[in-house]
Amino acid sequence: MNTHVKITQGEPADLSRRSFLVGTAAAGLALGYSGVPGLLGADQALAAPSNFDPSVWYSIAPDGIVTVTCGKADMGQHIASTMAQIICEELGANWKDMRVQLASNDPKFNDPVLGAQITGGSWSTMMNFDAMSRAGAAGRLALVDAAVAAMGVPPYYKDEMVVRDSAVSHPKSKKSMTFAEIVKSGKITKTFTPDELKAIKLKTPDQYTMIGVSVPQLDIPSKTNGTAKYGIDTMLPGMVYGKLVTPPVRYGATVKSVDDSEAKKVPGFIQAVILDDKTATTTGWVVAVANTYANARKAADALKISYDGGPNAKLSSESLLTEAKRLQALDDSGLFFVKDGDTAAAFGTAAKVMEAEYTTNINIHAPMEPMNATAELKGDIWHIYSGNQFATRSGAIAAGAAGVDPKFVVMHQTWLGGGFGRRLDADMMVPAVQAAKAVGKPVKVIYSRENDMTMDFSRPLTFQKVKA
Predict the structure, then answer these.
(1) In what order do the strands lie in the sheet with 167-170?
(2) What is the pLDDT of residue 176?
(3) CB 267: neighbour CB atoms within 10 A?
(4) Nearest to residue 85, comparing CAs of 95, 75, 71, 73?
């Protein structure tokens, strides 16, 4: 997998190694790469010195604040707070000192199990529990070693040290240091190889004080006071807006012509951009770009577009259902999940046989926050601001739309205003990138509700015939 050429100034170029190292920096204890273009101050967070290659999950600042980097999309399920809670349990921090930020699409933030940044299937806690726990435990051990050295406690008393509420204490000598004091002492030197990390003995459930208890979710204050930033909240200097015009066919249509003569009468209209999507994520889309979203909507409504409907022009729910019934009736269609015994003979001798047909309709995801993305080209790097559930794929789609290698794309993850699987798809990257490329300015594309519903990657209608 590619590593980024550049994310933020001063970042080490080689980010591919996976070892977990703890080191002291002037800014604090770095137990997780935190120079992340994300949110909640992540752009200004501390960066570990280049001679250390830390894991990615959290950092402790000189004031004792523990900032956890969550590699999962948080769409209201509070997974960022969950990751912080797991780390807090093993680290021995006080919950009031915990903060969260969301990861960029850098490959080092990939899921420890899945090998990609993807959020779905209720996998996040199950698959990340061990990695987060070991990250927290390693930090605790490093802090204890540093506290022993700083307090002058004989090393053979190390097992008597107690870590609780963001402090390390030695009850016998009544000596104690807070995490902040330990970080500022400059005594943290402990390192962990992957094998050593794997060998750490974690707490057993009967020892838990944080996991399994109700704690205030860390994202609630910002989401209730209006400071939380979603993709739709992105504002960049010089930014303009894009409004989609989508074809009457969900997939396969192409644009034959665009008449923008009426759109040019709309104040602030800039350009109508026909998407040329080499990723084949979208087909037949046009973006009206203007200085405000209101003007972009007016311009989009004023465009006169003719389409070739393509191979799916006559497709409908009725035709799909008819085809499903035709396939079901074929003897050689489909496959067996289980085939056990002679069903034909069983039906022949059954006292009663029942048959029924069941259908489900096309199902849309309909998250509260409409699909949106903002794209900006700075130097050679494309910066994409959008809440998404699949940063690995979203970055690749954005790169394909821009015609660049994925290592030249940085995803700035935001909070998601709902997902339900809809944001596993990255169609919103395409119009934002190609519109920004066409007009030479940052472009924010916001789907209307109509765009969102008709162009959703819907769950298909189904037909089942049951005989028993």
Answers:
(1) 162-164, 167-170, 175-178
(2) 97
(3) 11
(4) 95
CATH 3.30.365.10 describes domain 232-311+366-454: yes
What whole-number distance in Å separates Cα of residue 120 and Cα of residue 234? 24
Q: What is the value of pTM for the model shown?
A: 0.86
How far apart CA 267 and CA 114 sit, in angstroms, is 48
Which residues partner with 27 through β-bridges?
A: none
Residue 302: strand, helix, or coil: helix
Same fold yes or no, 20-225 and 232-311+366-454: yes
Q: Where are the domains of the chain?
A: 20-225, 232-311+366-454
Cα 337 to Cα 172: distance, rounded to the nearest angstrom: 65
What's the pLDDT at 127?
94
How far apart (Å, rounded) are the C-alpha atoms in residues 202 and 134? 7
Pick from 392, 358, 381: nearest CA to 436: 381
Q: Is the dihedral of CA 112, 115, 117, 122 positive or negative?
A: negative
- C-alpha 212/C-alpha 209 separation (Å) is 8
Report whether 347 contacts 353 (CB < 8 A).
Answer: yes
- What is the third-level CATH fold of 20-225? Aldehyde Oxidoreductase; domain 4 (3.30.365)
C-alpha 227 chain-centroid distance: 19
Distance separating alpha carbons of residues 384 and 408, to the nearest angstrom? 11
Rounded distance between C-alpha atoms, residue 67 and residue 59, angstroms: 5
Q: 194-200: long-range contacts (C-beta < 8 A, 24 or more apart)?
A: 194/18, 194/19, 194/20, 197/20, 197/134, 197/138, 198/134, 200/134, 200/137, 200/138, 200/141
Q: Alpha-carbon distance 91 to 82, whole Å?
A: 14
Residue 345: exposed, middle, or buried by beta-carbon count in 10 A (0-12, 13-18, 19+)?
exposed
Distance CA 434, CA 289 (A): 11
Residue 243's nearest CA partner among 450, 453, 447, 429 is 447
pLDDT of residue 20: 40
CA atoms of 146 and 438, how far apart (whole Å): 55
pLDDT for the residue 48? 38
Q: Where are the beta strands (DSSP E) in 3-52?
A: 20-21, 23-25, 28-32
Token look-up 């990138």 returns 433
Please report the pLDDT score of residue 55 as a whole number: 56
**Below-50 pLDDT ranges, the chain:** 1-28, 32-54
3-state SS track over 60-83? ECCCCCEEEEECCCCCCCCHHHHH
Give the count of beta carbons closer than 10 Å to the beta carbon of residue 360: 11
